[in-house]
Specification:
Structural class: mainly alpha
Distance between the termini: 28 Å
Number of strands: 2
CATH architecture: Orthogonal Bundle
Helix content: 40-55%
CATH topology: Arc Repressor Mutant, subunit A
Number of helices: 7
CATH superfamily: Winged helix-like DNA-binding domain superfamily/Winged helix DNA-binding domain
Radius of gyration: 17 Å
Order of helices and strands: HHHEEHHHH
Number of domains: 1
């Protein structure tokens, strides 16, 4: 199982925006985010739409424009970011939509899939953007 490029890039973008804005009037341009994260501006433009629709960032257009968080980093979870970028976390379709599988009712593996999905969701809910910015998440310490 892999986390999609889109989800990973959304996390990187949000960490960079959080690091370079102070939650008030400070903005960061997509060009700056692109330089900092090595994600193309074109890709960032696509991510911005999803993250704005998810209520996680806000933007100002024109000269001196850019992006900032729409709420404090401590109030944005890794789950919020991933779900805004790729949709609901669902490792196997039958977890959220059992009717998509004819064997779901008697499947011996489905409980495992549900457990894995639940633990992933809970872990992502426990990690705030602030935790990611400060490397405070369990196992993220670089020391």
């Amino acid at each position: 199982m892999k986390l999609s490029t889109r989800a990973r890039y959304a996390l990187r973008m949000m960490v960079d925006v959080a690091r370079h804005t102070d939650g008030t009037d400070t903005l960061i341009s997509l060009n700056e985010v692109s330089e900092n994260t090595r994600i193309t501006r074109r890709y960032l433009e696509q991510l911005v739409i999803a993250l704005k629709n998810g209520g996680l960032i806000r933007g100002k257009s024109g000269k001196g424009g850019g992006y900032s968080l729409s709420k404090p980093a401590k109030d944005i979870t890794a789950r919020d970011i991933i779900q805004a970028s790729i949709g609901p976390i669902n490792i196997v379709e039958c977890v959220m939509e059992p009717e998509t599988c004819l064997l779901a009712d008697g499947c011996s593996c489905r409980p495992l899939y549900c457990l894995i999905n639940d633990r992933i969701v809970k872990t992502l809910e426990e990690l705030s953007l602030e935790d990611l910015v400060n490397n405070r998440a369990a196992g993220l310490d670089t020391e």
